[in-house]
């Protein structure tokens, strides 16, 4: 290609030289300012996006940890449950299957029965003292609901339980944190 068709920085400098004489400023400086301004713009935009995203993420985490206070419901015969065993109940509605575990140390823990992977019902394995999902071999810690292994992406949803006058009541429900991987 002949130099006649070239249009590089030197050509532009040459073509604009008369105007630079009338309005003296250094093109290099102008380019610097433009780059600086552009970098500032990028920086501010990135910061704004980061703050916005962090805000949404923070809100999601807070929402996820909030316990939904619901009408208390008596869990029938839970007080007779032997250590290292479980029973099924429904909470907060008849369609929400849940599982109450009395761990080997005698503590009561309750969870939504839906596996957090693809919603198969989990069960309590007395042999392994953990909650297991038969669909894809996921397992959860009986004391915390955290994922022990397998594909579930988060811990089981927790159901709050309280002992009142020797009876066990379900009093609320909280979704596990969807961002922590459920491994505790
Ligand atoms: S549905 Fe429970 S591991 Fe897949």
Care to describe what's here?
The protein has 184 residues and is an alpha+beta fold. The protein has two domains: 3-64, no CATH class; 67-174, Rieske Iron-sulfur Protein (3-layer Sandwich), CATH 2.102.10. Helices cover 29% and strands 29% of the residues. The strands form two sheets. It has a six-stranded antiparallel β-sheet, with no helix packed on it. A four-stranded antiparallel β-sheet has the order 5-6-7-8, with no helix packed on it. β5 (123-125) and β6 form a beta hairpin. The protein is globular, with a radius of gyration of 31 Å. Mean pLDDT is 78; it is low at 1-13 and 58-63.
Number of helices: 2
CATH architecture identity of the largest domain:
3-layer Sandwich
Helix content: 25-40%
| CATH class categorisation of the largest domain | Mainly Beta
List the helices and strands and how they pair.
Blueprint: H1 9-22, H2 27-65, E1 67-74, E2 85-90, E3 97-102, E4 108-112, E5 123-125, E6 130-133, E7 138-141, E8 147-149, E9 158-164, E10 167-174
Antiparallel strand pairs: 1-10, 2-3, 3-4, 4-9, 5-6, 6-7, 7-8, 9-10
Bound molecules: FE2/S2 (inorganic) cluster (FES).
The site of FE2/S2 (inorganic) cluster has 11 residues, from loops.
Summarize the structure.
The chain is of the alpha+beta class and 184 residues long. It has helices spanning 9-22, 27-65, and strands at residues 67-74, 85-90, 97-102, 108-112, 123-125, 130-133, 138-141, 147-149, 158-164, 167-174. The protein has two domains: 3-64, no CATH class; 67-174, Rieske [2Fe-2S] iron-sulphur domain (Rieske Iron-sulfur Protein), CATH 2.102.10.10.
